Here is the input.
Amino acid sequence: MAYHYQFRCNACGHEEYIHLGLIPNSAPEDIFEYVDYKFREERQFKKDVLGGKYGDYIAKVCAVDSEKLFFSASECLVWCTVCKALGIGHDKYISSKDYEGSEFFFDAPKKPYSMQIRIRQKCKSCGGILSMIHGECAVAAKCPKCGEIAFRQLRRLIS
Ligand SMILES: [Zn+2]
Ligand SMILES: [Zn+2]
Here is the structure.
């Protein structure tokens, strides 16, 4: 499943598409590469958590039963609450695996998680807190061309 966001700047007219996920009808090697990329991101996230990157407390809690936890690092749109820049980031969270259903990434959990920790992320350019956008993007972002806070979502397509 892929998400395509179309943005347009109300100030200068600049338009851009942002794509998230796997484009349908991808070549088999692209699918393998994407799945591999997803696993690499999740493995790295798990390593970072257990290695203490997000603090000793979370590292200790997760180390107890790390095999029973799911380390998710899926792509999402991110918007900086300070400089208003828009970009592609990762929604990093740790949750318990005790839900009904498959762990395969296309399946949504069918039962609520008994535990979930979401990592707060910061903007690389200004250090502001990033807000993760999963559905429609209702906020105005900074235009990558003219810098005005007038970059707005025009359309969102799911394919
Ligand atoms: Zn920022
Ligand atoms: Zn602009």
In short: Confidence is low (pLDDT under 50) at residues 100-107. The longest strand covers residues 69-80. The CA atoms of residues 41 and 73 lie 6 Å apart.
